[in-house]
Specification:
six-stranded parallel β-sheet, Rossmann fold, 10 helices
Length: about 350
């Protein structure tokens, strides 16, 4: 036990690049510990542990099954290709391991339902790896969006996450392989765009989803660039763009009747321990229409722990409550994951159907 409660022992399934970041986050989190790592070869697991600050007594496994059979592993982080999520998240849950699952959580909402059902049946916590949701800036921005005087009634949102991948990425990365991550950019960077939209509207599902024309697919049919629009029955509207083919951009613009929220680094802040956002309320022009009155204001939020460590800390706290106090797993996080995955599914369906609108049936 630590001053923060039960220390959760993590095992990592696989040695993906993102696992380096989460390994550090587990080390920084005060209620978690790097305990084991598994790869398809023992040598690769050993090299990963050495390169990523695992303690000398960390357990190394040459198969994922062997790690899951370790009774001392409390939770697993799963950064495997999306096509493998349902297999290994289910296997972990059946062994009683709590599951921190990379995004996209599955290839479809139906696949994810299998994961959720297994976690529920075995009483284990499930959470996806959307790190920005755990940054204190996110809660501050939500306070503004819920302020009826400052922001007003929600009207529209645009989100964007793009980066310019190099030729090797576009040819060889798992995110462009149909047998590994068939959703491509939609599943990878598009996940964040859709999550941002749903977050702004308190996860109210839209009435229809329509993919925007102009999607770019590779020769294998994997999405490299796409966009979509979401429409609610009361007139709210949202659009997003995600791509492996444009310069690094991570924007949210939310428009209300009384105010506007802008954030330009929502997925990964410019600085690890501080992040800013801009709000404007009741803005107009001066008499000469030469400047804004009042000007938008910038807000700075600092944090002692980076957002990925805060994510691990929250997950570990939930797991600790289950293990030491007999609490039930928190159902909020799987619900948010499923809604995000569902919208991705419908954007893909719209692309496949010639960019026609698709009705949302939750």
């Amino acid at each position: 036990m630590s001053e923060h409660g039960h220390v959760i022992k993590f095992g990592i399934l696989g040695c993906a690049g993102i696992a380096r970041k989460v390994s550090r986050a587990i080390t920084l989190s005060p209620n978690s510990a790097l305990f084991a790592v598994a790869s398809r070869s023992l040598d690769k697991a050993r090299l990963f542990a050495t390169a990523n600050g695992f303690p000398p007594d960390a357990r190394l496994y040459g198969s994922y099954e062997a790690l899951l059979d370790d009774p001392e592993v409390d939770a697993v982080y799963v950064p495997l290709p999306t096509s493998l999520h349902v297999v290994w998240a289910v296997a972990a849950a059946e062994k009683g391991k709590h599951v921190l699952l990379e995004k996209p959580v599955a290839l479809s909402a139906g696949e994810f339902d299998v994961i959720v059902a297994t976690c529920e049946r075995n009483g284990v916590q499930l959470m996806d790896g959307t790190m920005w949701m755990h940054h204190p800036r996110t809660a501050k921005m939500k306070d503004f969006l819920r302020d009826g005087d400052a922001f007003g009634r929600f009207m529209a949102i645009h989100s964007c996450f793009t980066f310019a991948a190099d030729p090797d990425f576009l040819k060889n990365d798992i995110r462009v392989k149909p047998d590994l991550d068939s959703l491509g950019a939609l599943g990878d960077v598009g996940w964040y765009c859709v999550r941002a939209i749903l977050w702004v509207v308190d996860f109210e599902l839209p009435k229809t989803v329509t993919a925007l024309q102009g999607s770019v697919l590779n020769d294998s049919g994997v999405i490299l660039s796409c966009g979509g629009s979401l429409l609610w029955g009361d007139g709210k509207v949202a659009t997003f763009h995600c791509s492996f083919m444009s310069h690094l951009t991570m924007d949210i613009t939310a428009l209300g009747t009384n105010g506007t929220l802008h954030v330009h680094d929502f997925v990964i802040p410019y600085q690890e321990k501080e992040a800013s956002y801009t709000t404007a309320s009741g803005s107009g022009f001066d008499d000469l229409v030469s400047c804004w009155v009042p000007k938008p204001s910038e807000h700075l939020v600092t944090t002692d722990l980076p957002q990925e460590a805060l994510m691990v800390k929250e997950f570990s706290s939930l797991v600790g409550g289950i293990k030491s106090r007999g609490l039930k797993p928190d159902t909020k996080w799987p619900l948010l994951s499923r809604k995000t995955q569902l919208i991705l599914d419908l954007v893909k369906k719209s692309i496949d159907n010639g960019f026609m609108p698709v009705e949302v049936i939750g």
